[in-house]
Amino acid sequence: MSGVKRRRICVFTGTRAEYGILRPLLKALADQPSFELQVLVSGAHLDPRFGETWRAIAADGYDISAKVDMQLTGDSPVAIGRSMGLGTIGFADALGRLAPDLAVVVGDRYEVLAFVQAALVARVPVAHIHGGEVTEGAIDESIRHAVTKLSHLHFAAAADYRRRIIQLGEAPERVFAVGALGLDALGRERLLEPAELEAELGLALSPGLLLVTYHPATLGVLAPGAAAVALFAALDRFPELTVLVTGTNADTHGSEVVAATTAFLARNPARARGIASLGSLRYLSAMRHCLAVVGNSSSGIIEAPALGRPTVNVGTRQRGRLRAPSVIDCAEDEAAIVGAIRVAASPGAQRQAAEKISPYGHGGVAEKIVAVLLATDFPALTVKPFHDLPTASAPPRSE
């Protein structure tokens, strides 16, 4: 665009899951001549223990504008708190160097909170995707709402979430219900056929595949290790099924989940595989062809119903999120998990899931976000009005 300054948009990603959600938006921004895309990677992306997933971003053809190592040396609360502090220092330096006109973040992780703190002080307005949601079983709940208050533009996955963001005092004209961004990929990527997926994984899909992702429930009833032991004990009760386990998040006490996972894989070498990071294509393909999704990942709540697969949602980590009727909730208890898997495998549950009922829309979200960004004056975002809700004692404020 000759003579017209391209506005710099810095997209932050700290985990493989965030990147999977953000991929359609990155492409839409890169294809938009009015914008200059910057990609800042951090967190688990840079950690060999989690697969160094920054390489997948580079393989997709994106130049990585900055890497910020948060130096995650452990999974204790102290280690993660220190990592957040070191991350904020690195993010401040990166933002000073990149000088973006807008930053884009998704979700509710501690890496995101560290980043938006640095952006706030640098007077870089932030667009937040997936705010307004409730997950009572994890500290992500508080982080998400804190990120909302540190952000300036909001793209909610559902109308209910838009209302909650406004309830937090955000101006309605800055809050948009656009649907779940991660669903964009479902209609754009050609997913692998069963034979292709079997060749990729070295794992038979027949007579049935359980796709398992379990993250520490940081406010759960059970300790993460004990909850994971219960989950894998339940999976031992289905020797006829194959099991694909994806890696856990870099969360508090995640090593306990890794230990339980490793023990399960050692007990079941012929029918189970563990892969730290499947990548978006293999993960969504496995989800499309599985008998059920099992665990406590948000993908079981958002993506699985849109792909027509039932979900066994274990524990409280996702409590409060809108759910499709194909989501089966159960406690972090061996017997409860066994019962829920049996329900998910039943013909009735399979038929219900095949209806693909989703409270999060059916894609087209990246284009909606880009349209809003094109029409937005970024510098005007930094001063935020507080939107008061009307009450009996405090009528709406007149301007």
Characterization of the model:
The chain folds into 2 domains: 7-179 and 364-381, Glycogen Phosphorylase B (Rossmann fold), CATH 3.40.50.2000; 192-354, Rossmann fold (3-Layer(aba) Sandwich), CATH 3.40.50.2000. Helix 4 (110-121) runs parallel beside helix 5 (140-149). It is built from 16 helices and 13 strands. The longest helix has 22 residues, at 77-98. By secondary structure, the protein is an alpha/beta fold. 41% of the residues lie in helices and 15% in strands.
Annotated CATH topology of the largest domain: Rossmann fold
Secondary structure category = alpha/beta
The profile of the biggest β sheet is: 7 strands, parallel
**Proper CATH architecture of the largest domain:** 3-Layer(aba) Sandwich
Cα-to-Cα separation, first versus last residue: 39 Å
Oligomer: single chain
Number of helices: 16
Low-pLDDT ranges:
none
CATH class descriptor of the largest domain = Alpha Beta
Q: What order do the strands of the largest sheet run in, or round the barrel if closed?
A: 3-2-1-4-5-6-7
Quick overview of this protein structure:
This protein has helices at 16-30, 54-59, 77-98, 110-121, 140-149, 159-167, 184-188, 194-201, 224-235, 254-267, 279-289, 298-301, 303-306, 334-345, 347-354, 365-374, and strands at 7-13, 35-42, 66-68, 102-106, 126-129, 153-156, 175-177, 209-213, 242-246, 272-275, 292-295, 311-314, 327-330.
Which helices and strands, and how do they pair?
Layout: E1 7-13, H1 16-30, E2 35-42, H2 54-59, E3 66-68, H3 77-98, E4 102-106, H4 110-121, E5 126-129, H5 140-149, E6 153-156, H6 159-167, E7 175-177, H7 184-188, H8 194-201, E8 209-213, H9 224-235, E9 242-246, H10 254-267, E10 272-275, H11 279-289, E11 292-295, H12 298-301, H13 303-306, E12 311-314, E13 327-330, H14 334-345, H15 347-354, H16 365-374
Parallel strand pairs: 1-2, 1-4, 2-3, 4-5, 5-6, 6-7, 8-9, 8-11, 9-10, 11-12, 12-13
